[in-house]
Design goal:
Elements lengths: L1 H22 L9 E6 L8 E5 L2 E6 L2 H12 L4 E10 L2 E5 L6 E5 L4 E5 H4 L4 E4 L9 E2 L10 E2 L5 E8 L2 E5 L5 E5 L9 E3 L9
Antiparallel strand pairs: 1-4, 1-7, 2-3, 4-5, 5-6, 8-11, 8-14, 9-10, 11-12, 12-13
């Protein structure tokens, strides 16, 4: 009887662990920048194309976009898409967790910003599924020196972006360089979530 009970316990534990492992989305590729859309402007759906101006394959659905990127950018009046390529007024955006993309034409309603400008001045935090070995604060933007370990729960303010590195202010005293995306181009950070206002 005991071996059976032990087997059931091990199976249950494995299921709990596997569920926890898949609860967080895979860290997406950063691409070249961020497309910001005011949700109030999406009265008419934004068309998506397989290639710029050719073979329309769908539209942007606000609810689906929020589900895709809210965990990176937080809730609010804006919704965001990761931009992976640009051709003139056309932007290729990620459309799902698998990294599949489509093209859309930039209009005045759609605000595209390269990462270097988008992150500057933002308060960020490491993603919960970022590898622990990547959570380091360095004196220089180089892996040749040893870094100071950080926690995934701390927040930092971005001062400057240099390639895959970001110079951040951790508090009024500590500052240094972190990797904001890994060597594969996957994001290590997201925007820090503002605490919900407390009701009186």
């Amino acid at each position: 009887m005991r071996p059976v009970f032990l087997s059931i316990f091990v199976l249950f534990f494995a299921l709990v662990v596997s569920h926890a492992a898949v609860a967080l989305p895979m860290r997406p590729y950063s691409g070249i920048g961020v497309l910001r859309i005011n949700a109030a402007d999406l009265v008419d759906s934004v068309p998506l194309y397989d290639e710029p101006g050719l073979q329309r394959n769908g539209t942007i659905e606000p609810a689906a976009v929020r589900e895709l990127t809210t965990w990176l950018f937080g809730p609010g009046e804006y919704i965001y898409l990761l931009v992976t390529a640009r051709k003139g007024d056309w932007l290729r955006v990620e459309c799902d967790d698998a990294g599949r993309g489509a093209w859309l034409q930039k209009t005045r309603r759609l605000s595209y910003t390269p990462w270097e400008l988008f992150l500057k001045g933002k308060v960020i935090t490491f993603l919960r599924n970022a590898p622990q070995k990547q959570l380091q604060l360095y004196v220089q933007p180089s892996l040749s020196s040893s870094g100071v370990p950080l926690t995934s729960s701390g927040t930092m303010k971005v001062i400057q972006i240099q390639g895959d590195w970001s110079f951040v202010l951790q508090d009024k005293i500590n500052a240094g360089w972190i990797r904001w995306r890994d060597h594969d181009g996957r994001l290590l950070i997201g925007l820090a979530q503002s605490p919900a206002p407390q009701s009186r």
